[in-house]
């Protein structure tokens, strides 16, 4: 169940990134991609009853807020800053 959930999350993230990549030449770096894969790998090691929303929120806690990142595109898109 946990692995299925993580697989679905991985697929959703990859699917959501396709329009972003197509809309601009590059909106993420290889370093960003490696970080996402590392976060998902670490998540696989967590107990099955883990609250995934809290788990990932805590993993991203130290990333500083950057203003105006949501106003970059004309269409609304999910933007996750990993830097």
Could you describe the 3D structure shown?
The chain has helices spanning 2-23, 30-44, 52-59. It is globular, with a radius of gyration of 14 Å. The mean pLDDT is 77. It is mainly α and 83 residues long.
Shape: globular
* Overall tally of domains: 1
Q: Alpha-carbon distance between the termini? A: 30 Å
Question: Helical proportion?
Answer: 40-55%
Structural class: mainly alpha
Low confidence ranges:
none
Beta content comes to under 5%
Number of strands: 0
Give the helices and strands as they follow along the chain: HHH
Major pleated sheet: none
Spatial extent as radius of gyration:
14 Å
Number of helices: 3
Mean pLDDT: 77
Which helices and strands appear, and what pairs or packs with what?
Layout: H1 2-23, H2 30-44, H3 52-59
Question: Which properties best describe this structure?
Answer:
83 residues; mainly alpha; 3 helices
Q: Briefly, what is this?
A:
With 83 residues, the protein is an all-alpha fold. It is built from three helices and no strands.
């Amino acid at each position: 169940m946990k692995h299925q959930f993580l697989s679905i999350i991985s697929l959703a993230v990859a699917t959501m990134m396709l329009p972003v990549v197509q809309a601009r030449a590059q909106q993420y770096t290889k370093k960003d991609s490696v970080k996402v894969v590392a976060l998902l790998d670490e998540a696989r090691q967590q107990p099955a009853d883990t609250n995934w929303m809290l788990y990932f929120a805590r993993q991203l806690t130290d990333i500083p807020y950057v203003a105006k990142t949501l106003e970059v595109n004309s269409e609304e898109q999910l933007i996750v800053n990993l830097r």
